[in-house]
Design goal:
globular, 116 residues, 7-stranded mixed sheet
Amino acid sequence: QRQLVESGGGLVQAGGSLTLSCAASGIPSINSMGWYRQAPGKQREFIATISSSGSTNYADSVKGRFTISRDNAENTVYLQMNSLKPEDTAVYYCNARWGLTWGHVWGQGTQVTVSS
């Protein structure tokens, strides 16, 4: 069974830091992994991706504050979030693209709440 399990969410004050983790299992030939988020009443939005070779891409809203990294041996992706703002409050979802057809797998989501 293809599965992504996120951890590391929680409550933090503005200006603080959190690190999210996402462990993949049962997913063959992962091409890229990434993070998205969805705030209440808003659409899910792209945050960051990292390819199997380590190339990264970030949304403008998080550049310079968030860092995505990946442990290919452990099939785990991380999101280090610094200088958090109340507008970063959302459910954060891990995503993996796999195989020749770049299929999607999504995690269950983890809540991040930033208080002002």
